[in-house]
Please model this.
Amino acid sequence: MEAGEAFPVLRTLLDLGARPEASVLHARSRRPERVQVLAVGSRERAQVFLANVAAEPHPVRVEGLSGRVRHASLGDASPGDEGGFEIELAPRGIARFDVEPAGA
Model:
């Protein structure tokens, strides 16, 4: 905790804990010194967590998945806002992409 607020990783762990059946998917970052990635689920339905470990904003593009993408807030059970596979991560920010088949 910092200044009475939990670090964003706590919300990430809560999101992961809500999906005990999910499998970890192979995922890698081209810039691991800037962005870390964790993907769970399946190729059809996945949650991709992206963490900017740098003090500057960083653009990110997720490759290798297809379908409908929603950018969801950490710890939020709502579906989130539809978006694409690109996002700019805030400094030290964490984002979650929920990916599902296009017709779902």
